[in-house]
């Protein structure tokens, strides 16, 4: 490090950029009906506004962390921030849905450059006994962002137009850049070999899989669509095989998955990312198109979820070290699935608003039971030298789940609307303009779509109840020593 700085000042500077990224992940869902109406597009295309962002965010994450090690986390964070801010302005000035999708992809790339660097700076600037407090603040920022995103989106859409959910990032990005330049330290760099074939295989595989799933309805699920999906699965399988044979620095270190809890936590967080992303879209379409709520009013429905998550997350976080993670995380996944099923059952044209708030509040408590136990369990048993790689993989699988959730829910909504005799076009899903006779079938389509994330959460439930008790105290130290000795012996043999 070039000079001694207060790590808390650096953390607060990084939190601004991190907050902006997370807000942008949730703010668009509220604006989707307005974007559809203004740009004259349909549900299938508008979903790509989110999917393009998530896809461009997820795919590079494994490599951008290493780029930060090579060129310095501060430098890569600031480059990513400039790209994200510039792409935000581009989004706001877009005159077509196609241009908006492209701009959102560049936004996602900027976010992918920023996210790993923030974690790296925390790990490298805070003493081990202070990292817990730092990560607590980090988690609190994430919780606030889930509330601010929809609310800010609603207020901006109602008063200024959907363009301003992106343009507002520009002054925030400028402030974040200046603070990062001044307060974030320049850290020592290290050489890394980059797994270029791994990057190409994973990117191509993910794109083909997501594109095939999301565009399936547009092509009536013909042979072309299934060939895209099949090609994506094959490329991802080739990617995993290549990673197993890469003896240098694989993009995906498969040895991490030898730890049972790490593997199961990645399955669970993929299900969580899928559910969180896919549940919001049908809910927002239902509240605005069927109930005639404004974007702001729709966003306010999510307040109980964010508030209860914020209240219970610190309490449950303290229990993580004392209680077997399967009990906390398993309960969270089960309650989340039950809450979504409950929500699906009450989503009718005439249901009282308070009946919607009850399952939404339960989702907030369930979230508090999931995020912290999963994150703590994922990397707990990993040796220190693998903790960074483990965190990178964990974050990537969460984003992959989000991408698949966005693609799948878009395809399912389109299919369920068609089953109800609706096309899913902008005229049928406008903001509060549904004719009386359309409300019932539209509500049915949205409620049926909610069952998808509910079902996927059961996969997370099964994974979480299979957790082994994390190693504690001396046992953990002994395991780390054995692991280090095994690596040393392997190195000597090689």
TrEMBL record:
Its main location: membrane. It comes from the Bacteria. It comes from Rhodococcus erythropolis. One of its GO terms (cellular component) is plasma membrane. It is found in: Cell membrane. This is MFS transporter. InterPro entries: EmrB-like (IPR004638), MFS (IPR011701), MFS_dom (IPR020846), MFS_trans_sf (IPR036259). Residues 10-472 form the Major facilitator superfamily (MFS) profile domain. The chain crosses the membrane at residues 12-34, 46-64, 76-95, 134-152, 164-184, 196-213, 225-242, 263-286, 298-320, 327-345, 357-379, 450-468.
């Amino acid at each position: 490090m070039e000079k001694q700085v207060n790590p808390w000042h650096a953390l607060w500077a990084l939190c601004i950029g991190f907050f902006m990224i997370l807000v942008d992940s949730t703010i668009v869902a509220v604006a989707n009906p307005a974007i559809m109406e203004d740009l004259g597009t349909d549900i299938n295309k508008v979903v790509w506004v989110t999917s393009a962002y998530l896809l461009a965010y997820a795919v590079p994450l494994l490599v951008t962390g290493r780029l930060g090690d090579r060129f310095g986390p501060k430098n890569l964070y600031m480059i990513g921030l400039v790209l994200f801010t510039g792409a935000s302005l581009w989004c706001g000035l877009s005159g077509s849905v196609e241009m908006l999708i492209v701009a959102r992809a560049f936004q996602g790339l900027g976010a992918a450059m920023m996210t790993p660097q923030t974690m790296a700076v925390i790990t490298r600037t805070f003493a081990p006994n202070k990292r817990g407090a730092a990560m607590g603040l980090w988690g609190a920022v994430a919780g606030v962002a889930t509330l601010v995103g929809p609310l800010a989106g609603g207020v901006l859409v109602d008063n200024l137009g959907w363009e301003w959910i992106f343009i507002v990032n520009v002054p925030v990005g400028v402030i974040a850049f200046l603070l990062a330049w001044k307060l974030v330290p320049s850290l020592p760099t290290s050489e890394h070999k980059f797994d270029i074939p791994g990057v190409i295989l994973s990117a191509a595989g993910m794109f083909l899989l997501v594109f095939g799933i999301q565009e399936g309805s547009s092509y009536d699920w013909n042979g072309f669509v299934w060939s895209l999906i099949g090609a994506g699965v094959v490329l991802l399988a080739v990617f995993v095989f290549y990673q197993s044979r890469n003896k240098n620095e694989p993009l995906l270190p498969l040895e991490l998955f030898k730890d049972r809890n790490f593997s199961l936590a990645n399955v669970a967080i993929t299900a969580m990312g899928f559910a969180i992303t896919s549940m919001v879209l049908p809910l927002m379409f239902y509240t605005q198109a069927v109930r005639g709520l404004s974007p702001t009013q729709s966003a306010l429905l999510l307040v109980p979820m964010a508030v209860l998550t914020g209240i219970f997350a610190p309490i449950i976080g303290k229990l993580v070290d004392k209680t077997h993670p399967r009990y906390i995380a398993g309960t969270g996944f089960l309650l989340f699935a039950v809450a979504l099923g409950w929500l699906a059952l009450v989503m009718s044209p005439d249901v009282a608003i308070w009946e919607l708030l009850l399952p939404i509040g339960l989702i907030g408590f369930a979230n508090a039971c999931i995020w912290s136990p999963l994150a703590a369990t994922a990397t707990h048993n990993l040796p220190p030298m693998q903790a960074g790689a483990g965190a990178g993989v964990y974050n990537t699988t969460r984003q992959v789940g989000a991408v698949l959730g966005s693609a799948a829910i878009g395809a399912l909504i389109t299919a369920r609307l068609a089953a109800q005799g609706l096309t899913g076009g902008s005229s049928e899903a406008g903001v509060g303009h549904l004719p009386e006779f359309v409300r019932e079938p539209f509500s049915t389509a949205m409620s049926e779509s909610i069952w998808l994330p509910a079902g996927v959460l059961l996969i997370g439930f099964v994974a979480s109840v299979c957790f082994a008790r994390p190693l504690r105290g001396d046992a953990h130290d002994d395991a780390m020593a054995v692991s280090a000795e095994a690596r040393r012996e392997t190195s000597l043999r090689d």
